[in-house]
Amino acid sequence: MDIDVRNLHPLEIRLLRHVSLDEPITNQAMIEQLGYNIGQCNQAFSWLMAKGYISETGRTSKTLYELTDTGKQQQQLGTPAERIVQLLTAAGALSLPEIAEKLNLDKSDVGSAFGLLSKAGTCKMAEGNKAIIASGQLPGEIVAGRVLLNKATTVLIDDADLSDDEKSFMIKNSKKRGAALSPFKIVEREDVVYSLTETGSAAQKILEEKHITGEELGAVTAALLANGEWKTSSFRAYSLNTPPARMIPGRKNPYASYLQWVKDKLCSLGFEEFDGPLVENEFWNGDALFMPQFHSARDIHDVYYVENPRHTKKIAQPYLDQVAATHENGWTTGSRGWGYEFDHEFTRRQVMRSQGTVLSAKTLPQARVPGKYFGVVRCFRYDQVDATHGADFYQTEGIVLGKDVNLRTLLGLLKMFAEEVAGAEEVKYVPGYFPFTEPSIEVHIKHPVLGWFELGGSGIFRPEVTKALGVDVPVLAWGLGIDRMALMHLGLNDLRELFTPDIESVRMRRGN
Fold first, then answer.
1. Do both 394 and 270 map to the same domain?
2. Residue 466 has what pLDDT?
3. Beta pairing partners, 437
4. Which residues lie across from 64 on neighbouring strands?
5. Which end of the chain is more exposed for a tag (fewer CB within 10 A), N or C?
6. Residues 380, 381, 387, CA angle at the centre, nearest 5°?
7. Residue 132, phi then psi, degrees to nearest 5
């Protein structure tokens, strides 16, 4: 049997030289006999198991309890029950709220502790809802808890060693997760027993024959050179067959890099970036875009509503009144509106932003003429998740304002986005419908695997949108699915690959 001991770590060497063939090998034994810590034990066991030098012979599970910061505080000040008894003994009758205030405890903690004391006959409730001492004899559970708090200072407490009173205390005062407010944290641990294999025994003999102790030096330090110890010391042998450590350079997520590249490209074309909150109200999410409040796209099955707070406090004026009038009768836009009574309560309802056009509408009142604006916007809309759809997604959204902009200008922009930003070679335009644009156009691109799919929608804002928000010139608007553009640009076939949890895939794929 060819056994190479040159690549063994000092932790492995010391362990192998220390144990005998039939001796049980455990964490506790190595901690006591070799001075290892838990981490070093686990490393040595893992490495030696992989080499076949030791094997697992037994495994037992145990539950331990560890003192938390809250427990350390109770160790010094006393448990809530102990403190209540001390306070009532000194101060006499007090109400539960007064006890909570004087002891700086939560009312729930005081109520729970007093309930335990009352059940045991230690305290009772007198006239006027005042708590008083009855017998003054602490319940066995509380006495046991005091013993455990004192004991846990130095050791972890094993569940198997607890008495009935101690177990009763632990059940109420320990948690596995979120244990910050409990005096004890539950720690589940497995004790594994190993033993030396025949291969390990053979490696052990080779180590003894070659006088390899595990104390060999792995590096020359300035201190060794200064004191001359290197002259009489033994050094670990170099192994040219040992694979080098993997170097993983830092790198931006490729999709994040692509989004930044799109922003840089649009800024270089003279666009100004806008941004806004993920939570919007129905006014900006739909009303300001001349979407009627009864439109099917505003149903709960298509929009995520915010539960708390449900409504925003106010909507900016005069835009609220102007948009409301536009919906009801057209206001001064030349339109007849939608002919219904505008719901001022509904318009304040808060939702997760469902379309990037929200920010285009919010930008109009402050926009310069002429002007060009864009945003890369995260949106949320219920959808069946597949290769080209997601329940949350990015849109690149923008507007162009000017007296001379027209449909030809818009088609040129769409062609530029499809070819320059998405990298598409085949582009086509399809008539569309959006409540806030007229005419409305969808732009489609051809993916080499997925075929034709919609890249996004666009159009010229209707006067009902622009005039109600204080703009009286043509406004081009576009909202394109930048996730889909990234599929083309990064050579992917599924939107979900943009957000993959596979870190190796992210490392290997380069962005711009």
1. yes
2. 94
3. 434, 461
4. 158, 187
5. N
6. 95
7. -140, 165
User: Which residues of the chain fall short of a pLDDT of 70?
Assistant: 1-2, 178-179, 239, 297, 299-301, 387-388, 504-512
Q: Kindly compute the dihedral angle of the four CA atoms of residues 372, 376, 381, 385, in this order, to the nearest 10 degrees.
A: 130
Over residues 374-425, the pLDDT tens digits come to: 999 888 887 777 766 777 888 888 899 999 999 999 998 888 877 877 777 7
Report in angstroms the alpha-carbon separations of 372 from 285, 377, 437.
21, 16, 17
- The conformation of residue 235, written as its DSSP 8-state character, comes to B
Whether 270 is covered by a domain: the verdict is yes
90-137 per-position pLDDT tens digit: 888 899 999 999 998 888 889 888 988 998 899 999 888 899 888 878
What is the separation of C-alpha 405 from the centre of its chain, rounded to a whole number of angstroms? 44
Q: Tokens 């109009």: give the residue.
A: 364
Type of residue at 149: L
Burial 466-479 (b: 16+ CB within 10 A, else e): bbbbebeebbbbbb
Question: 471 in a domain, yes or no?
Answer: yes
In a domain, 347, yes or no: no
153 and 224 part of one domain: no
Q: Closest by alpha carbon to 475, among 373, 375, 379, 395?
A: 373
Please say whether the beta carbons of 410 and 459 come within 8 A.
Answer: yes
Residue 210 included in any domain: yes
Question: Three-class SS string for 50-108?
Answer: HHCCEEEEEEEEEEEEEECHHHHHHHHHCCHHHHHHHHHHHHCCECHHHHHHHHCCCHH
Length of the chain: 512
Q: Which residues of 149-169 are buried (b: 16+ CB within 10 A; e: fewer)?
A: beebeeeebeeeebeebbebb
Check the CA dihedral 359-300-350-327 and report its sign: positive
Q: Cα–Cα distance between 176 and 182 in angstroms, integer?
A: 10
Query: For the packed helices 38-51 and 10-18, what is the interaxial angle rounded to 10 degrees?
Result: 80
Domain that holds residue 148: 67-188
